[in-house]
């Protein structure tokens, strides 16, 4: 192992969600590096620490929304429902940390605010919001692609006298039982929250900007026999997951929608509607829902027909019915459209009737109506992917900041590294695979771990993605995205949800299997696209 410099740590990991926990395990327990992980939160868990809003759960089925690396835990960790609620996910991640004795190298309540690279030594200096600073040869950012809240500027927001909250920072003492609740936003989070809140709030007002395509989740209890069967089949399950596109644990269709009769299409859509799950509906029914406009319209029209069937009030049904492409991240819930048949739930289309201001007692819409509220919930999403990087002062070679480097939109090589920022690795950096996240995270953590291990063994002290490799990867991702319908609608996947943010590709759309092949290819070619130097000073050229 090289020890050319005297640093506080060999490696620093930023974040302790799914990615940071496994990265710390990999670097410390498997590679033997002196590693410390930091988190601004008061506990580990990342997304699953912060998102404690009523109804919060993963909407990818739980049997594949976990790590595959710990085979013993796969056999021992128990579950009782097919989707995993936030509390259980947090308990699971805490158990992984405890089992692998990671807690002693995790520093909580400590946000990383800066990371500056010293070219002459090949060392990063990382600064914290507690005023400390630490040096390390490697920094791995595991910031989470959805962790910097997007809160709209609405006049009067500070005047509201009830509780006002973003779903990504839900306080433990806030309950909504028996209260008048308003929610702005109808994405995965807003619809999930609405389904839960409808049943306990005195009154729920859903402020909808865009109508959503939503399919049933099929959420419910699982039997002990099912759990036993999954456990016995895990080797095969993970192999299938890694060999698939969206890695959600179901077989993806290879049948184009228009290759079958209309009657057959409807039968298939109905079958998958009954099974539940958003990703399965989009990628399991037919092969081209996300790529062929006609196939997409067939799926969209099926969902629209369900809205007409389910929602009793025609005016509410009209407002709930989307007319654009079905090309955002697919979402599912137990009974989203059904909640609008309840007397205590009201839908306000803020596209037709915008919010004009927030008053001390509620929200006023353009028609002059004041919607009186005790709790106002922003389920308005996140400054995705690069948002969490831009709020840190990250400086690479020649003092160039990551904000400058990403002025035209976030880029990377393979989603894990970026030119000019040597020895800085990202888990779920820009243009990582668009897939179920835990298998995507494991793929990257293992690959970064192998790269660092190789560097340590070979005496390489500086690892840097080349500018050419980064440009080519960005172009590949752009072309793949353009082959899909996703860039044609406005969503966080392309940064279109943040006012002023440039609309840029932020994911690799060819799927996890193809992404893994690409990573293998790069590693086998001696980490093609990376400059590997034995001496820091060589990078100055
Ligand atoms: P999303 O999917 O970005 O959804 C945010 C929602 O908030 C969406 O309905 C937006 O409407 C709405 N929104 C955003 N900004 C505003 C403003 N300024 N005014 C009114 N409404 C607004 O975030 P989620 O948290 O639901 O989900 C993010 C990911 O987390 C999800 O895909 C999963 O991967 C987990 P819009 O549709 O843009 O018109």
Automatic annotation (TrEMBL):
Query: Per the record's keyword annotation, is Nucleotide-binding included, yes or no?
Result: no
Residue ranges constituting the FAD/NAD(P)-binding domain according to the UniProt record: 10-219
Kindly give the InterPro entries that the UniProt entry links to this protein: FAD-binding_Monooxygenases (IPR050775), FAD/NAD-bd_sf (IPR036188), FAD/NAD-binding_dom (IPR023753)
UniProt-listed Pfam families: Pyr_redox_2
Q: Which superkingdom does the taxonomy of this entry point to?
A: Bacteria
Keyword annotations of the record: FAD, Flavoprotein, NADP, Oxidoreductase
- What name does this protein carry? NAD(P)/FAD-dependent oxidoreductase
């Amino acid at each position: 192992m090289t020890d050319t410099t005297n640093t506080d740590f060999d490696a620093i990991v930023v974040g302790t969600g799914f990615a940071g926990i496994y990265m710390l395990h990999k670097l410390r327990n498997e590679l033997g590096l002196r590693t410390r992980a930091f988190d601004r939160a008061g506990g580990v868990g990342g997304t699953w620490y912060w998102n404690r809003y009523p109804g919060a759960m993963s909407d990818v089925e739980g049997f594949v929304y976990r790590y595959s690396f710990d085979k013993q835990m796969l056999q021992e960790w128990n579950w009782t429902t097919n989707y995993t609620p936030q509390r259980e996910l947090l308990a699971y991640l805490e158990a992984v940390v405890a089992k692998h004795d990671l807690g002693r190298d995790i520093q909580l309540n400590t946000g990383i605010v800066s990371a500056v690279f010293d070219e002459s030594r090949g060392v990063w200096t990382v600064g914290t919001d507690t005023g400390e600073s630490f040096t390390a040869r490697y920094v791995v950012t595991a910031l989470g692609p959805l962790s910097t809240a997007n809160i709209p500027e609405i006049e009067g927001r500070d005047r509201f006298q009830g509780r006002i909250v973003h779903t990504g920072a839900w306080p433990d003492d806030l309950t909504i039982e028996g209260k008048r609740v308003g929610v702005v936003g109808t994405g995965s989070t807003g619809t999930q929250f609405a389904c839960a809140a409808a049943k306990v709030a005195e009154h729920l007002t859903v402020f909808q900007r865009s109508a959503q395509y939503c399919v049933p989740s099929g959420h419910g209890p699982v039997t002990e026999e099912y759990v036993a069967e999954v456990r016995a089949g895990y080797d095969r399950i993970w192999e299938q997951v890694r060999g698939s596109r969206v890695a959600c644990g179901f077989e993806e269709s290879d049948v184009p929608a228009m290759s079958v009769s209309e009657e057959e299409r409807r039968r298939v859509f109905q079958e998958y509607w009954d099974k539940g799950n958003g990703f399965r509906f989009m990628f399991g029914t037919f092969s081209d829902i996300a790529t062929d406009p006609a196939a997409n319209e067939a799926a969209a029209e099926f969902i629209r027909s369900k809205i007409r069937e389910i929602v009793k009030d025609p005016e509410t049904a009209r407002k709930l019915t989307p007319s654009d492409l079905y090309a955002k991240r697919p979402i599912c819930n137990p009974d989203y459209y059904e909640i609008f048949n309840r007397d205590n739930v009201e839908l306000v289309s803020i596209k037709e009737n915008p919010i004009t201001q927030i008053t001390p007692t509620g929200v006023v819409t353009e028609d002059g109506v004041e919607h009186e509220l005790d709790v106002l919930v922003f389920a308005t999403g996140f400054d995705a992917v690069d948002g969490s990087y831009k709020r840190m002062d990250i400086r690479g070679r020649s003092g160039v900041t990551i904000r400058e480097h990403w002025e035209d939109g976030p880029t990377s090589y393979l989603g894990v590294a970026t030119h000019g920022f040597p020895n800085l690795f990202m888990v779920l950096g820009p243009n990582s695979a668009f897939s179920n996240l835990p298998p995507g995270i494991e793929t990257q953590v293992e690959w970064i771990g192998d790269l660092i291990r190789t560097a340590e063994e070979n005496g390489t002290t500086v690892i840097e993605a080349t500018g050419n490799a980064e440009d080519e990867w960005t172009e590949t991702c752009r072309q793949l995205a353009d082959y899909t319908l996703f860039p044609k609608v406005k969503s966080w996947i392309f940064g279109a949800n943040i006012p002023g943010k440039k609309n840029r590709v932020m994911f690799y759309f060819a799927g996890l299997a193809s992404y893994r092949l690409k990573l293998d290819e790069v590693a086998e070619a001696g980490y093609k696209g990376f400059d590997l130097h034995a001496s820091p000073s060589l990078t100055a050229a």
